[in-house]
Please model this.
Amino acid sequence: MNKKIILISIMIIVLCLSSVSAHTQNCKTTLISYDDLFKNNDPYCIQTTIDSKPVDIYIPDKYYKNLTEQLNNGKTANISYYENNDGNLIICKINSIHKDTTQTDNDQTYVASANSDKFHTPGCKWAKKINEENKITFNSKQEAESNGYKPCNVCHP
Model:
């Protein structure tokens, strides 16, 4: 009886592994950013555009915390996704996370609070907590630093 249970368990594991590898073989990639988060009411769903069409990509639990924290800090992520049997797009891998390169320092703005000594990228989770009446905007890192502000340790502007 124990041999049957072990054999069935091994068969289930093999089926699961083959299913996972089939998904990763059929994965496509795309870039996502903070702007793609929370466009609808589902916090586990990213709404982005692929081939000029709006699509929803679902975030599995194992990626959720890291991915949303990184995107909230003004970074972009290169992800792989696949289409499941229900037609939903699911993230199957985070390939890389990096600073948003869509803006150069010449057209990037930075924000700080009059009550702090740190400056942030506008997408940083700490920047979003600054009250509008205390918000200061800088046109460059050099401008922020010359006014006595230091780079945030979270978003690393």
Notes: The two ends are 61 Å apart (CA to CA).
